């Protein structure tokens, strides 16, 4: 189960202990926008029910990226518009079943068969409203802008900017409480993506995991990511060994190893 955190006027974050996940809701006068849907249909249904305690407005969904914990609860929201980057749709179509198999296996190994079954049963919903660069959504008396800030946590991140509330939902481009995840990331470009997030001028930034943060927090994380990007460059140039890069990194070894692997991967 989750708890609500109010991030601004008619802007809420649904916080979950499971994976420290943060989901979002923005309400206008005519409709509301659901930001990510959770890891399976049970979590998605719980989120949908919690939304109905706040508003009965018709909803649409935006997915910040294709990872299971942000997108596999979408079927619980029924027939509605689902917004995402085109590469998010492609990633879900290509990797949805693989993600289910991989993470269900992870939960079984952790002694959580119920979570594994819920994930295995999740129906992968492919987005039908695609945003390559930016799109403005009119919720009735309120405009919300969806923006692809470039390569970062994935190749298809979308951020959700609510200008009149000075709030940005950044997905996993920003992490609070744990280092950023580099498994599908583009480490050299990630700092630039955060520059574009910071340029929106939001007072509150909602990470994909963790509590809402301010711009100063994002600036610090951007500096850490720039350090990692430079370490990746130096290793590829032969200026540092992997061991030296791991020792100098602001993040634990596992995270930095993933960043080095991703930076060395073919484009």
Structural write-up:
The chain is an alpha/beta fold and 267 residues long. It has one domain (2-215): Metallo-beta-lactamase, Chain A (4-Layer Sandwich). The chain is built from eight helices and twelve strands. The strands form two sheets. The chain has a seven-stranded mixed beta sheet with strand order 1-2-3-4-5-6-7. Strands 8-9-10-11-12 form a five-stranded mixed beta sheet, with helices on one face. A hairpin with a 4-residue loop joins strand 8 and strand 9 (143-147). Helix 5 (190-199) runs antiparallel to helix 6 (215-236) and helix 7 packs across helix 8. The chain starts with a strand and ends with a helix. The relative contact order is 0.13.
Average pLDDT score: 97
The shape is globular
Give the total of domains: 1
Indicate the CATH class.
Alpha Beta
Q: How do the strands line up in the largest sheet?
A: 1-2-3-4-5-6-7
Which parts are unreliable, with pLDDT below 50 for 5 consecutive residues or more? none
The biggest sheet amounts to:
7 strands, mixed
Query: Which value, in Å, is the CA radius of gyration?
Result: 18 Å
By CATH, the superfamily comes out as Ribonuclease Z/Hydroxyacylglutathione hydrolase-like
Tally the beta strands. Answer: 12
